[in-house]
Amino acid sequence: MRMSESFSSPGIDPPSPTLSARLRELAEYLAAPAAGRLTEEQRALSLGIARRLVTAVAARLDPAIDANALWADWLHGGVPGAERLVGHCFARAEEHRWREQSAHRNASPAPVHPGDATADAPAVDTALSDVDRAYLALQIADRRRFDALGNPALAVGDLDAELFRALLLDIAAWRLAEVSRDTDRAAQLGDAVRAVVSRQAEEPGIADAANAYHAILGDRVPQVAADAIARHNWPVLIALAAAAHRRSYGDMALSLLTAQAAALPSLLAPLQLDRTALAPLEASLAMLPSRAVADGGGGDQVDPKPSGRDGR
Amino acid sequence: MSERIIRGRIDRSGLLVSADTPLLRLQQRAGSGLGKPLALPHLARLVALAQRLHRDISRPMYTADDHSDIHALVRIVPDADGANLEISDWRTGPTIHPQIPVIADSALTPQGWTWECDQQLRVVALRAASDAPAVPAGWEGRSLSELFELQPDEDGRFPVLRALGRQSRFDGQRVQADGPTGRVAMTLTGEPQFDAAGVFTGFRGSAGLAEPQAQAAPLPGAVLTDPAFGSLPLSDPQFGRRIDGALRGPLSRIIATAETISGQFDGPIRADYARYAGDIAHAGRHLLGLVDDLADLQNIERPGFKAAADEIDLGDLARRAVGLLGMKAEEKGIRIDAPRVDDKMPATGEFRRVLQVLLNLLGNAIRYSPENSQIWIRVDRADDRAMITVADQGQGIDADQQAVVFEKFERLGRTDSGGSGLGLYIARRLARAMEGDLTVESAPGQGARFTLSLPARD
After folding, report:
1. Contacting residues of B for A59, CB less than 8 Å apart
2. Could you report the predicted ipTM of this complex, rounded to two decimals?
3. Yes or no: domain B6-94 corresponds to CATH 3.30.450.20
4. B98-216 has which fold?
């Protein structure tokens, strides 16, 4: 439905895109006035994540693509396939807000007492254990979900093939309009899409790392998950929960972030955590403002179910 | 900068038993108080370190309350019943909340990389900014010190390793890394990361391309043809650079590795082994200093060479020298009787050079003293001369030897690996360049007394 049509009425000039967007927003508001809305921070984070994803995918398709021009066009005309992207961008943005909040509160290092330095020292890394190696891989996969400045991003390797292909085709279509007179380059673009899709399929993502870590931990999962909660190491908790539930990382993140406190024990049941271990998690989530809690009281207008490539 | 000293006292069990108002206020804002454990984590760590080492340490201190970040310099003097705190240069600034991204925009240039490593310095993230050279392939999980070949700073130290030990921020770590077209010189900056339990989890930082002049140019023909110091072509203008190229690289690697072992960064090892590694690092730094001296000889021998005229306190410098070489003396059971804290002797001379002379004198005294003996360091003044004397109970130097002991490459017939024979020569040249002198009094069997005199200051 196009708002310019819906809200055009005799005596009013066809609205500008801005007016159209505002009217659409108002219509959505009137449809559910009690629902919580996106904050500016949430909008900005999600938009930034979308932009970084588009830029990264465009660079893979053809380094000659002017990502700034592409994004400027899409900002003006709307991001194609926005519905496909919103869940992923929102999940990543909310996870980032959560982690940022914890980082704020983790400013004070613990005092190191005599003897602690050696007692707590990690094992010699000449022979990295399988568990340590899997944890390292998980950390690396997680850090791929940031840009060079530490801003949140979606790693291409984490995208499901369908979403990635659709985005590639949208970018290719934009590029095609630019190089339409150059038939050779247009043909190359098609080849490039196929090659990039094929490479992405082989690229390990955070889901692979999460599954490997979960599998190698075996019966140590509850202990490691409890430790992750105590240390506010949310990526590890999300990864273990996602692997245990056989859900995508983004899906699991959003489930946690939108869960009521009472729902957390059942949500994390596969991790076999006792109630006291969950306390820091409950407290941390409770402190996160503007959360889209799944009780309907503050729900945002997005479908909180992004399906990652590992969704099973 | 405030010159006021803020004092405090920690007892044997780590309780803050007395504190000047600013320190007490900070302790109270941290939820503690007098007679309670020190609630300032960084300061508590430094106190623990000083107590563990049984010696004074002076370090920058970073702490914060709800309203401000506080930077200060803290000196911790441990004793049998606890430790005294002396805090100076107390500066407060508005609180800077750590945020994601913590990589300051100013720290990352478009030509730079950002990186992140875990607590064992294994790299978990490496990304290039928009105009930066591509990052090397296969960085995932590699050691930071392997990915970036660490270069020592002017003091022969490695900021990143020091920061690892202290779990603090660092900058100015010079490195060499693999770029797309060969080796590139870069400078690393990093912030420590902590989890909610306050456990150090690694560093996050940036790597910027170093200024072209800071790049260590490969030195052609850097291998010395004749290792005998006496035959080195000191007059050759390339001498300094050749020494640098031939020795600095291997020494840097020795120091870096020894510091890693000594700091037990890769896991616990036996305490005596850690100490041996510390000694290796120490000796390495000393050798690196010698390399500097050799390269510096040209300067010293140049007519008109002049040192800076800093306002110094010979008592303070003596205590610093003891702090640096105390462990070496302890190993031989040698007791050093150094000037007390209130023993001041104002003089004029270049701070770094005077410390260099004192380290040479004290190092020689330790080296040539018998085990379980004593070394005295005394400061004194005669007219317009401020003097400091280092006396030992070694075998002494006879009159003939005294005549040549300050000669270049003179080792009085010794063949051990203790020195190059340049130390006293350089020391006297430096003393004279500072309008002072270095003299010796000794007799066989009665030890030696080396006296450095400098212009006194009122």
Report:
1. none
2. 0.80
3. yes
4. Beta-Lactamase (3.30.450)
